[in-house]
Design goal:
Elements (H helix, E strand, L loop, with lengths): L10 E4 L3 H12 L4 E4 L14 E4 L1 H9 L3 H5 L5 E4 L1 E5 L5 E5 L9 E5 H14 L3 E4 L7 E4 L7 H4 L4 E17 L6 E7 L2 E7 L10 E9 H9 L2 H12 L6 E3 L8 E10 L3 E3 L19 E4 L5 E2 L7 H22 L8 H29 L4 H15 L2 H12 L2
Parallel strand pairs: 1-2, 1-9, 2-8, 5-11, 9-17
Antiparallel strand pairs: 3-7, 4-7, 5-6, 10-13, 10-14, 10-15, 11-12, 12-13, 15-18, 16-17
Helix pairs in contact: 1-4, 1-8, 8-9
The protein binds flavin-adenine dinucleotide.
Keywords: Monooxygenase, Oxidoreductase
GO molecular function: FAD binding; monooxygenase activity
Protein name: FAD-dependent monooxygenase
Length: 404
Amino acid sequence: MKPRSAPEPAVCIQGRGAVGMALALALAHQGLPVAWVAGAARPPSSRPDPRTYALNAASRRLLQALRVWEALSEQPGVVTPVREMAVHGDRGGQLAFSAWQQRQEALAWIVDAAALDRALATALRYAPHVQAVEQPCAAPLQALCEGRDGETAARWGARRIRSDYGQAALATRLQADRPHRGRAWQSFASPAVLALLPFDGAAGPAAAGYGLVWSLPQARAEALRDAPAEALEAALQDATGGVAGTLRLADPDPAARACWPLRLVRAERWHGPVPEAALHPAGPRAPGVDPASWLLLGDAAHVVHPLAGQGLNLGLADVAALAAVLGEARVREAWRATNDPRLLDRYVRRRAGPTAAMARATDGLWQLFAPSQPVVAGLRNLGLGLLDHLPPAKRWLAAQALGG
Ligand SMILES: Cc1cc2nc3c(=O)[nH]c(=O)nc-3n(C[C@H](O)[C@H](O)[C@H](O)COP(=O)(O)OP(=O)(O)OC[C@H]3O[C@@H](n4cnc5c(N)ncnc54)[C@H](O)[C@@H]3O)c2cc1C
């Protein structure tokens, strides 16, 4: 009997990160045959990702629909809800949010980055309509989810505008000597931004764990990444003023810390034609076959400062938007190919505005707290205090962060 060949994929997804994997699952749920470029088997990394992600309600809804959230929350300590959040300025300004005030179950959910990747990869193994391939293959739509350093997008003509903050974010896990009670804490101390994200970990709530994200001038961040544990703990105690009790590194080994250089990136355009030779090295495509298109999602399209913990939330919102556009078209405009410019423009219309607004908000906050002139410092702290007494403005801010 002749073996049945897999149907030609409607979308080929390049990107092994959370956005690429979530996209493969979301499109497969719409019944679209997809190829996901898993690449050749790689040795497991000796440095696990120490990040904890703050995911908003919209990201949680998407992961629930993909049946990934359930798998995550079944594991002890991998998901921790944030019930309260305090933001401190550098001259006494303060802003406080609570889930109860916002009439929400939680302000965000803190999720282990490595566990999220594992849960997505496991779901992909069992997903129908997903073909894991080693190399990019021909498909009308090439979805590029390669992250901030992806090279295919640049090779295929996607121009991205980029500015460096001159800072790096240091991430690791901490243990405090008192329970976190679901409270996140963030301080803006020009030019540093430090966030403590409550995270139970395998030991449960009594272990009083936190994920640390500390944005600092790059040289300082790298020095602290490589510093002896006692030096980093002393610097942390100094920066937090004991707000979370005495903080210790969960793992004193510097391999349990990592630094990411920070930049603001936005794509000039989100889709375009794949160069003729790129996927067909054997020659031009058959007459009458439309050229394939590339489309950007996640950090490949936009990178924002992590001070608001929104990068992955934006990427997952891209996934939800593209899956909705292609899913709706399958029902109402089945004659359109997945790279029909009308569909791609619909996706861009849904995503370009919210993404640009979040980039402006995070960049504006960073700019506001970057200079150290006393007048600016006084005004920004006054602004935080005023905002704290304006419930509608606070509700609006919280709604933006929660993803609606
Ligand atoms: C310190 C820090 C803390 C953060 N905290 C938060 C947070 O709390 N909440 C939040 O929402 N966001 C947060 N972010 C942002 C978040 O990490 C990113 O937005 C998110 O990881 C982007 O996902 P991605 O899949 O688009 O890209 P990536 O995570 O970069 O994944 C892309 C992957 O694709 C691979 N790849 C590249 N080229 C190819 C190719 N040709 N084929 C196949 N694979 C390829 C790459 O190696 C990489 O593994 C944080 C970022 C930092 C630096």
